[in-house]
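Q&A log
Question type: sequence-to-structure
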Amino acid sequence: MRNISKLKRLISGFKRQNRLTIQSHLDTMAEDPAVYSEHLKGIGPYLKDNDIYLYIDHMCMVVVCLDKYENKDELADEDSYNGENPLYFTASSYRISPVWQLSETMKLIEQKLKEAAISLKMQGVLLSGSIFSNAEDMERIWKEKNVTVIDHLDGLADWTIGVNNDDELMKGAMVMEAIKDMLTPPSTVNEEEDSSSDDLAEDFERLLNDFINNEMDHGEEDTEDEEDQEDQEDTEDEEDEEAYDFLSGEDDDPLSDIRYPTGIIEQNHNISVRVDILRPIANPREELDKLVGCDDIKRRMDELVALTRYNKMMHELFPDSKQHEVSLHSVFLGHPGTGKTTVCKIFGSLLRQAGALSKGHVVVCDRGSFIGTLWGDEERAMKQVLDMAQGGVLMIDEAYLLNGKHENDPGKLVIQLMMNILADETQRDIAIVLCGYKEPMMKLLDMNPGLQSRFPNKFEFKDFTVDELLEITLHRIKDYDYQFTNPAWEKYRGMLAQAYMVRDPETWGNARFVANQLERIYIQHASRCVNQHPQDKHELLTLIPEDILPFDIPRRKARIGF
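Response status: OK
Response body:
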């Protein structure tokens, strides 16, 4: 037994360290002639952006990962919810567990070593600048993962850690050879040769005509139709691919395993309507960050999602304790084009990642989705919509139109049915979002106190400023690799500012207005290029003043009377 302990001294030595001794121990390891040490600039796929240090002797291997993420108070959680990676939480954000990433990396290394017929006892060490407030509670779990965690390390990013890279230690060289395809490669730059102008001249007119015919429909309605068609095609493809996925055991994208509804509502035997189904996205937080403006909405949505995640974790850890009450039902207030539908899609995806919803898709409805021609159509439609929205978000656009002035308006029945759903404790795997203009929406809530209390989360989408609309413009043209010349940009800025000054606040389209104007610019630009045959291919991506047509500005309606 004593000999075995001596052979594993490399691992036991690291396990004994703490935040006061670890730096000195690393210096000692770098000078130990019996230990091979190596510094890696990342090891994929989980730790490709981390500094990794390997320590290898003839029997053991220690993988040290530097976690330079610094936060004063972070809550660790190694449990996975709904197949998602385990997460660590701060008061306002979260991230994937670094211990889980290190543990998964060690498993991959072990597999590589096994293939190379190399047998080593392995231990992971996570050195973190963060402070894990529940570290004592997590020690047993970390130990089971063969990971030693040392947190609260000040200035970790500035540490200088030496290694020996001793080629005479054959075991180390063998390990490096076995895992070489996991190492993060140095960045490379690919140089492409430009096509000759003669080749471009032969093809550009055909390509531009194809572009005009096939690629210029960027308007909102056409985009939604394309998304609907893609969703339908994806659903059909999923049915063909399910057998293959089941047999192969592949599960690279959890979203691909989810079945989504078709969006067809049969109001009665004679009439059916279609609603939009917005599928969840894989990286909702990144998409939220990309949105122009909406800072308050981003902050409050982070808070709501963080509390939801926290509740989920606390329920798993302390099932008998009382949990914070969190309502997912929300009201989105704002004019058209302010991003309500986009944020709703992100909202559903965030709630899915948080474990609050099982699917995260969005079912987009309005009054016409529910109101049919026969008695009872509303109840049938509501039941179908609810079935479609299970596991996701039910978004009702211009919800106040359901509350018609006539006392027998069938929309009132839809509101009552919705109230019954909200009162049903079994309906937890769904979030309902009411969208529309602020004034009529608040009037609807004020008229129905029960509705008011069940929609505590109110997000107000402000009209974009001119500067924000200009930023949105640059984001949109970047998607197609366009750029303005300076004179074209000045012309566009001036025309947008003028349109903004004379806008009607009730009909102003915000980002939708920008999208419509850019569509006209794209078509004008493409037509000009077809007629002028530019020889430099870069001109095909350059917008000039001639491409900027006068804006189609919705004017204020003149009042009649005195």
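Response note: The longest strand covers residues 47-56.
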